[in-house]
Amino acid sequence: MAQRRRSERTVETVASGVAEIVPDPDRDSAFTLVLDGAPQSHVDLADPTHLEFEYIRRMAAAIDLIAPPGKPLRSLHLGGGALTLPRYLAVTRPGSAQRVIEIDGPLVELVRRALPLPAKANIRVRVADARAALEGMRDGGYDLIALDVFAGARTPAHLASVEFMAEIARVLDPAGWLIANIADGPPLRHAKAQVATIRAALPEACLVADAAVLRGRRFGNLVLLAGRTPPPIAELSRRAAGDWFPGRVETDLDRFTGGAAPVTDSVAVASPLPPAGLFGNRK
Hints:
Elements: H1 2-6, E1 10-14, E2 17-23, E3 30-35, E4 38-44, H2 54-65, E5 75-78, H3 84-92, E6 98-102, H4 105-114, E7 123-127, H5 130-135, E8 142-147, H6 162-171, E9 172-184, H7 189-199, E10 204-209, H8 211-214, E11 220-227, H9 233-241, E12 248-250, H10 253-257
Helix pairs in contact: 2-3, 2-9
């Protein structure tokens, strides 16, 4: 079985680099999408609620808590990958109308072919730049926006500015939520600036991450939940503490940002590259 599944590995060149669909040796129905050597998404086709990556579990926990269980959400996903969160939402909140914006057309076709979506999932995928796509959307059209865009393991600069966040806030329902994945390492300069930038548009927010990442001791993912009303701190804290890899919720974001200013288009930069060898032990 292991030998046969190794032969199922798919490798193709897509717009953003070399993509691999790698079978999970521990789960017969699961696969990892790897882009240029960096694990990008993990999907279990038989059980979309199985979430392997800890930052995705934190994003999913936030999604679970922003509305009553099972309530459909109008959802926009900026960044598609293998569509892990849309698949999760389709199962946990049936009837949700979901749109995904992914810039890499060949990647979209690879995922559709190798990791097909459930037949009844209401997930529409559009090939476009996330910011350009937002500009044509109507005000207040979404209850949830998930922001998880990476190109070459970095978030592009034009998706890291107050102008972009103002567009996100515009298309969010007044009671809606942004869930953003921010990748950074010591001294967290990028993460602090991004938190300040997002809060300029959506001021009620909290961060969820590994304690060592929050303290600036190692590179990792920080998940920001932001909106216009107070986030569900107590419930989110319980979920983070009970994870396979326990995390912590940071609510004092003024202290976290340490006076960092929101970033405008004129000075925005891409997120930092992960340290060399960070993904070297991934299979």
